[in-house]
Amino acid sequence: MSDEESRVHNRPEPFFDDLADLYERFTRVRDAATSPVRSWLVSRLPPGSRAVDIGCGSGNNCVLLAERYDHVVGVDISRRMLDIAATKPSRVPVRYQHRSALDLTPAVDGRFDLVLSVNAVFHLGPAPEVLPRLRDLVAPGGRLVVIDITQPDDEEVARPAQQSAYAFDTARTLYEVSGDADAAADSLRMMLHPRWLEMSAAHMPLTYAEFAHAYRAHLPGVTLTKDLIPTMSAAVWDAP
What we know:
There is one protein chain. Helices cover 48% and strands 20% of the residues. It has helices spanning 3-9, 13-30, 36-42, 60-66, 79-85, 106-109, 121-124, 127-136, 155-158, 163-178, 181-191, 194-202, 208-218, and strands spanning 50-54, 71-76, 94-98, 112-118, 138-149, 223-229, 232-238. It has a seven-stranded mixed sheet with strand order 3-2-1-4-5-7-6, with helices on both faces. The chain is globular. The N and C termini lie far apart (43 Å).
């Protein structure tokens, strides 16, 4: 298999199309108004008029951004997720685009006062390749906000051979945060789905130490938050 064939073979579009409905139920809890993830995010949204959500999924955060920004773009590679997103009403119309986030450029798409990505950056590729691309989309004085999955630094559990252990840990965390047993069960179904297991083998999240090293190297002055909730860390970078 050539490098190009391998790259295409490993693209995650079909994974997310197959998992879209389960993922939508999972994100309803993550993105609920009472979620610590949502309250953390809301407190860090900068002023401005243009925002983009990288890997927007089923659009929950785009609806949030549309309450605060007049021009909102949501980008995702899953058509099924974008179909779900398009059914959600928002204060201003969100421009949903079926494309890779790495195809966005300042020359074609302009720059944004907010570049947001939640649980998507580690799917896009190696951090040294992805972070400069996202950084370049931020307007002068704008902000990049990333929330992403991170693995523990303990090497014995950082790359678990049994994905089921990580799935159960995530489901337990979701239940502890939300008290929603159905949502926890849905997250377990999603993370034990054959498509998710296949995708996870190809796109393993960074450990927190790796996350911190990469983000500090490519986003000077970045502010990091470890364990926003267990298994999720965050980064905030303000453009000069």
